[in-house]
Amino acid sequence: MAEANIKEGKEPLCESGSHYQAAFRYMLLARIFEERTASLYRAGKVVGGVFMGKGQEAFSVGLALALDQSRGDVYGPLIRDQAGRLAFGEALIDAARTYLGSVEGPMRARDGNVHRGDILKGMIPMISHLGSHISVVSGRLIGKRFRGQKDIVGGVCLGDGATSTGAFHEALNQAAIEKLPLVIAVADNQFAYSTPSERQFACADLVDRAIGYGIEGHSVDGTDLSLCLETFAKATARARAGHGPQLVVGHLLRLCGHGEHDDAAYISEEKKQGAFGRDCIEVARQHLIDSGWSTSDEIEQWTSEIQQQVEEATLCAQRESGPDPFQETWQALATTRLAEGLIEGSPGQ
Ligand SMILES: Cc1ncc(C[n+]2csc(CCOP(=O)(O)OP(=O)(O)O)c2C)c(N)n1
């Protein structure tokens, strides 16, 4: 029987300073960019919602860095995965252009801010926030299997609320039966909008569900970057080696509202002071200093470089125009690319 529910230990098995530094910088870039975007939203410069990944950056980056775009891995990020998107290769300017409605952006300003992606690069635009996202990534993996492509892993991101939907159960069951090389990252941030976890599921840890589906599960402190990197590296390697779907549950707290329109008044002080209420960026910053991998001066230097980078990207996107309705074809972007034969296996090829 497959090994199930691998509870991650407190100590990471191996670590490299440069890998950890790189992960931290993506986390910092995501945080600073999202804070800038939130302030533009409050100033009325962003149309649509702004959803932040505050508190989830370590978990997000852990999955994205474990995937390998050059091998054809696919990644299905969600609304709180700015850090992972950047780590998987999204250009900051593409994120800024989408939020600011520039026609130069990857979705030509037609899609919701977080509904962006690049199918050719393996980054699947999210179709819904909830469980149906899994089937889209599974479909991509099955397609690659039909074409004989091997050793490819798909990573898909979910929240705890997604695990309460029927689509989650159907998709997990199918992935288990097909033994898909799928890593399902569930960020248990203790809330689905304003519904707390205790009103959503009765098991002690969502990872316990892995046993019922016959798949392997991993439970990790999502505020600890070392453990996140370690856990996702292990889960991805097992998926690639043919051990089937891997359910990775990260325990953390959403350190913001559901979106910037929500003040999160329902998140109690007790939860904020709880074991998973700490800020993963602060934890990682301290770890960099304590391990001697970086000094606080160095981290300050990165912070100001990143602030500059974010400023340049947002200013550039703000100067660009929106789409001209008379020039646009209004076809779905993926369809245009299919028609042009740009997607592997498409009729045009
Ligand atoms: C089928 C469906 N029902 C409801 C919604 C509205 N909705 C969007 S996000 C969300 C809560 C998601 O919570 P969770 O999965 O825990 O993710 P989190 O926001 O905490 O990251 C809901 C109910 C939706 N997008 N799709």
Any overview of this molecule?
The protein is of the alpha/beta class and 349 residues long. It has a single domain (23-338), classed as Rossmann fold, CATH 3.40.50. Helix content is 42%, strand content 10%. The chain has helices spanning 17-42, 57-66, 82-88, 92-99, 132-146, 166-177, 209-213, 225-240, 269-273, 280-290, 296-319, 333-339; strands spanning 6-7, 74-76, 154-159, 182-188, 191-192, 195-196, 216-221, 246-251. Strands 1-7-8-4-3-2 form a 6-stranded parallel β-sheet, with helices on both faces. Helix 8 (225-240) links the parallel strand 7 and strand 8 (246-251). Helix 2 (57-66) runs parallel beside helix 3. The chain binds thiamine diphosphate. The site of thiamine diphosphate has 14 residues, from strand 5.
Quick gist of this model?
This protein has about 350 residues and is of the alpha/beta class.
Low-confidence stretches: 6-14
Largest sheet: 6 strands, parallel
What characteristic shape results from the CA principal axes?
globular
Approximate helicity band: 40-55%
Quantity of strands, as a count = 8
**Small ligands present:** thiamine diphosphate
CATH class: Alpha Beta
How is the CATH topology named? Answer: Rossmann fold
User: What is the N-to-C order of secondary-structure elements (H for helix, E for strand)?
Assistant: EHHEHHHEHEEEHEHEHHHH
